[in-house]
Design goal:
single chain; about 190 residues; 8-stranded antiparallel β-barrel
Length: about 190
């Protein structure tokens, strides 16, 4: 049984999906998540609605020091370039805040897609809120300098965007992109790397 098999059931069992993923190695979690079709990534978003409470520690474990990058391997529902990474770290000088950026092939064109993460959701839904409108006010060693998402090509890709996140398992989450509160119809999944 794979993640894909579990999501194809008429009524997918959230607990069974979480248990299955938690029983896999990190590399197997990435392999199974990245093997999902566009339809099944969207379905995962729906299956985990409203989802289990998710907090900042899901993205960056509480015992991580400031500025330590945590990589999340991802897949999206776009027609091309479906594999990507989001990188997160506790903010330098403010470990209660999480900063991040999108690590992907076309960063030279779109910019790094810098963001700040908030614990907030629609109508108080337990969801993380990745906010591309909020830019880190400092840098992380080895990361590209934070840039505004309000200019040039970056504005077309990230302008006004918020990603709402739901917990799937201990290291897997599913997200949905919105622009100024409007659903963009784009889902994605992340697996926190070992």
């Amino acid at each position: 049984m794979t993640l894909s098999d579990l999501l194809k059931h008429d009524a997918p069992d959230r607990a069974a999906i979480s248990e299955h993923l938690n029983g896999l190695s990190g590399s197997d979690q990435v392999r199974e998540v990245r093997a999902l079709s566009v339809k099944l990534v969207h379905r995962c978003w729906s299956v985990f609605e409203p989802g289990e409470t998710i907090d900042l520690n899901h993205l960056v474990p509480a015992d991580c020091d400031e500025g330590v990058a945590i990589h999340h391997m991802g897949i999206n529902t776009l027609p091309a370039f479906r594999h990507f990474e989001k990188r997160f770290a506790r903010a330098t000088g403010n470990p209660a805040e999480i900063w991040g950026y999108n690590h992907q092939t076309f960063a030279w064109l779109t910019g790094p897609g810098s963001f700040v993460v908030h614990e907030k959701g629609f109508d108080n839904e337990p969801a993380l809120f990745i906010d591309y409108r909020s830019i880190p006010d400092g840098g992380i060693d080895g990361w590209p300098a934070p840039k505004s998402n309000d200019k040039g090509i970056a504005k077309l890709v990230y302008g006004g965007m918020q990603d709402y996140m739901r917990k799937v398992s201990d290291r897997v989450s599913v997200g949905r992109a919105f622009t100024n509160g409007k659903d963009r119809g784009e889902s994605f999944m992340l697996v926190r790397a070992d």
